[in-house]
Write a sequence for this structure.
């Protein structure tokens, strides 16, 4: 299964929904990068993704985007192949 990295905060409901969707797909490990505890990590996220909101999800080297992007990818049938890569 592909490596999952997610920029997140402790109280973000979209982060929790993204994690729930991924766990439902069989993902057992999610590397969470907590940007609320380190301002430098927020800056890193914004430089890498061009976005300010969380979650920002990477599957392998692919930037998926936020929860809405992840859910849309799943509905389009693209999430399972990406997870398997």
């Amino acid at each position: 299964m592909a490596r999952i990295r997610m920029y997140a905060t402790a109280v973000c409901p979209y982060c929790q929904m993204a994690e729930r969707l991924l766990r439902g797909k069989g993902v057992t490990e999610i590397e969470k990068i907590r940007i609320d505890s380190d301002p430098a990590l927020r800056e890193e996220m914004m430089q890498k993704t061009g976005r300010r909101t969380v979650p920002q999800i990477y599957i392998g080297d692919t930037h998926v985007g936020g929860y809405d992007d992840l859910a849309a990818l799943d509905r389009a049938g693209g999430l399972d192949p990406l997870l398997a890569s």
About this structure: Residues 13-24 form the longest helix (12 residues). Residues 4-84 form a domain with the Glutaredoxin fold (CATH 3.40.30.10). The helical segments are 13-24, 39-49, 67-75, 79-84. The chain is about 45% helix and 20% strand.
